[in-house]
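Hi P.,

Sorry for the delay on this. The queue was packed all week, but I finally got your sequence through. Input first:
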Amino acid sequence: MTRRQKRTLWRIVTTAALLVVLQVLPVEGWARFLCYLAPYFLIGWDILWKALRGIVRGQLFDENFLMAVATVGAFALAVYSGSGDYLEAIAVMLFYQIGEWFQSCAVGRSRRDISQLMDIRPDYANVEREGKLHRVDPEEVPVGAAIVVQPGERVPLDGVVTEGRSTLNTAALTGESLPREVDAGDQVVSGCVNLTGVLRVQTTKAFGESTVSRILDLVENAASRKSRSEDFISKFARYYTPAVCAAALALFLLPPLARMALGLAGEWSVWLYRALTFLVVSCPCALVVSIPLSFFAGLGGASREGVLIKGSNYLETLSKVSTVVFDKTGTLTLGDFAVTGVHHSPFTDAQVIEYAALAECASSHPISKSLQKACGAQLDRDRVRDIRDVSGQGVTATVDGHAVAVGNGELMEALGVAYTPCSGVGTIVHVAVDGAYAGHILIADQIKPGAKKALADLRAAGVDRTVMLTGDNSAVAQAVAGELGLDQVYSDLLPEDKVRQVEDLLARQRPGKKLAFVGDGVNDAPVLSRADVGVAMGALGSDAAIEAADVVLMDDDPGKLAQAIRLSKKCLGIVYQNIAFALGVKALCLVLGAAGVANMWLAIFADVGVMVLAVLNAIRCLNAPK
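Then the structure:
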């Protein structure tokens, strides 16, 4: 609890205690007036000051003005009538402050959730110069500098590990509790916490361009992008408050004048009381406070789960998504080729893979890397001689004295080796040893472990259609789509083809429904920008993703998208609940107040009670549905 919240709570408790004491004290007349004036100013001095300042500045019509007019009027009415009933005026201020205190606590909780994300900002960097470590501000570290990250310290800048091995806690960035292993040659991003070993890192970006800086900027500016619901409430309050002030004035003047015109008593005090009650009821606090708070809490709840949403407008749009379009590589698949099988070989699988990996050991091609990875052991290049690259076909080499050829069917035909075609989906690597066919190796991209469940979760979240766009050939695309259960797939696409397909899908969207595109954020930037909602997945450290996307999933889990959609629907549902509840209760109480049925106590509930209930409902947005 902040110091300001503690002071407000002390004022609330003290005022309530004074009211209890004053109810039993036998004080009458002006002494009673002065005694009740003390708790009134104790609980309401700040509201009165804000109202006075608004009047001086010409900004009359806000909740402070309404509270001041209503309570000062109630005091004046009690003095005029001689009733000595000042309790209602103080109660209005007291319960209004209680409502403001609840609001402050709710906003504080939401801000704390977002501030946990802000804690990713590093305080310093250990720069290595002439064998010594110097602690400096991360903003002063140039690109290419050597820095050292000790266990327990936060990685201050994006870079590449040059020495050391450790595990990193990425929870603040991704929401993922499982630590990430890093070794020499691996990239690391700022904001992660080094858990175990000492790492030497060569920086690749200045602090202003680093991942942590971009994320902090994204979160800090998210609140500035308002949703349509928030804009509606702002415009509504701008016209609503003057309108109800005019209505209250009319309620005070017109009925007494009409009665006097008919020769009856004007009953000015009766209609003044009704007008004051009308003012208290009409205060739009519940809407003005709870609607922005709902979106703010929703953004905070999403960021806590590793989903960064650039503004409440995108949070609102997510709730209307009915079509989700995916890129394939790096989004639904790992983007990491791996050996999935060895077929038609007289040798063991390990022998065939070893022959192929040794023959390909001089290549940096992804196929070569997947073969070396499948081999497992460190390759002894001294076993390989006479490596020759055959352009567009493969390689030939001498391995342990044996002539080995590794490549496609064209290479086998050129060497006069009869080979067996493969019906599997993926890249086929044929192997020949000493002029005889030794089988083929099937290499394919791997589907992400959580991709199938993520698509099922999307359908459960209300998504009607899932589509995949890919530059891969039709056979690979259809195999992936079939395994995952996608509704449509388009293959053999260039980046500009993907944009055209998304535009075509947008043109076929039902009115009021939205389309989201999910990509890796690097080569899909044009499509991310074109969709109703661009979602960058696995965007840890990707500049293009953070710039082009509207929503950034900070890890490689596609299931976070369904979670973000469920959160957006929950948030919009709460917003609509608060709007309907607040307007409904106020409309009823306004009618009852104008008719003289409702008194000031009911007005207090219609204002403060509704606001407290709406705020408590709004903070449910902090908890993302699982």
